[in-house]
Design goal:
This protein has about 140 residues and is mainly α. The longest helix has about 70 residues.
Amino acid sequence: MATTKKATNGAEVFETLTTLNPESLKEGYEKMSEGFTAFADLQKNSMEAMMAAAGVFTKGAEKLASEQSTFVKALFEEGVASAKAVSGTKSVQEAMELNSEFLRGAVEKNLGQFNKVADICMETSKDEAKMQLSL
């Protein structure tokens, strides 16, 4: 690449302007055009990678939302059934036992659900990492 020097007198200015011939201008334009093309390709590849990553993330989020909604619905139905059973008891002791059973089961199910959520998140992260490595 040619270095540009600052012209200080008229002769140097004339010499600099005469070296700018059509061939050198064409060569400069072609280099500039190649640079813009390379930049556009980089931007295109970056956008494609971002869209692919968004697709993987969206699939993971959909799976997580579906799992959570199914879990919450089932837990709510069990809570309603437990409340009905407790309301039909004859003694406080019996009501406490039923409530304890429900809570114990709910805690166990919540821990199991936590593990499922963690697995889904890990699976999504692995899928995204594989996708990023393949680019």
